[in-house]
Structure formats: structure tokens, C-alpha cells
Amino acid sequence: MKEFRLYAITGEQFHPGRDMLEVMEEAIKGGVDIIQLRDKDSSPDEVLRKAKELRELTWKYGVTFIVNDYIDIALEVDADGVHLGQNDVSLTEARRRVGDKIIGISTHAIEEALLAEEQGADYIGVGPVFPTKTKVDVVDPVTVAYVQQVAQRIQIPFVAIGGIKLSNVDEVIAAGATRICAVSEIVGSSDVAGTCQAFLRKLEGAGESHAADR
Fold it and tell me: Which sites bind Mg(2+) (predicted)?
């Protein structure tokens, strides 16, 4: 998979009255590298419609497109990959179905991260770092301590996620994260592109600091 720094997930509940495609295009223009369609409430037909629209948008800009949960839909629209939770289909079964497409796995503990790496995940989600309203069935926050564990022990790419905002992202970066995912802070912003650019400046500043330390 391509190198990435900023990962955005759809969250239509955070921008009522605004079109999803418009919001995600603003995020891409702001510098987002990966877009994930995550929709737990719509019918499969509606998710498919949204996936087709986002696939066209991400092709237009050359951005990676991931579908959450729906492997069949990811395959139908030729998404770049799928993202799965701990209670979804196994990584082994997902790999059999999607071939060499990207597979991301949500993890909440170092044991889950190590297993995902061993089984061939292309990247993992690490979180929720902070309390979040994005998921109703959310586990307790893993805190930046888990981010630090993963940074020290996991070799595949990981993205920190969960309650991350411009006001607390410095803590996450200091713990070793070089890739950030935000939902409400991005899609709920009155300046989506500007918020994305602000996250990227934080990440770039941390990268320069780490280089200076070496």
C-alpha cells in the first residue's frame, strides 16, 4: 500500500445538511491520503451507492479508498481494500476473498496487533486513543500508552484513531504515531480542508523534530 499520513472516515452524522461527497472531496483537497466509507446504519444498497460515488471521487484524485466491513461491496466497486473489526470475518478468510487488496484491522491491545501483523494485515488501527462518540459499541480508550507499545513493537503501518483532535494530537504523535485518523474533527469542521492541513502540519513538525533528534 502507498505511504500515508492522514486517514479520514465518513461520518455523516457529524455534518447534517452537507453532502457526504462534498465533504470528503474537501478532505482530499486538504491532504487526506485515505478515505474509508463506514456506514453502519444504511441498507446494503445505499452503502453500495455511496461506495460507487466515493470510488469515482478517489480515482479522480488518486486517493486510496477503503470500505469498512462490506467485502462484497469493496470487490464490486473495486475499492483498494477493506477494514475489519475484531468481530468481523477472520483476516484469513478476508485475504482469501480480496486477494492482494489492502486489509486493515482494528486493534485495541498489543496481542491483537501482534496477531494481525502475524496473519498478514497491511495496516492496523490503534484505538480508540481517547473517548469517542463515533461508535456506539466502543471499547474503553486504549490511551497513548497503547500507541507507544505499538510504535515500539509493530513493524507494519499503524494509524492512531479515536477521539483525536487538533487539541490532543500532539500527545499521540509524541507517543510514536506518524499516521493519524480523525472522523468528527475533520468531517464536522466548518473548514474541512483547513483542518486536514492543520493535522498535516502537526505531523510534519513532528517528523522534522524526530529527524533533528537523530
Answer: 69, 88
**Residue range 6-212, CATH number:** 3.20.20.70
Give pLDDT, residue 133: 73
pLDDT of 125 over the 70 cut:
yes
Q: Which residues are annotated as a binding site for Mg(2+)?
A: 69, 88
Question: For residue 26, what is its C-alpha cell?
Answer: 474537501
Active site residues: 38, 106, 135
Distance CA 97, CA 112 (A): 21
Output the average pLDDT for the chain. 94
Strand ranges (DSSP E) for 14-108? 34-37, 64-68, 81-84, 102-107
User: What distances in angstroms separate CA 113 from CA 3, 51, 103, 159, one per listed residue?
Assistant: 19, 28, 13, 12
pLDDT value for 139: 72
SS3 content of the chain, % helix, strand, coil (to 5): 45, 15, 40
Every domain of the chain and the residues it spans: 6-212
What distance in Å separates the CA atoms of residue 205 and residue 126, rounded to the nearest whole number?
21
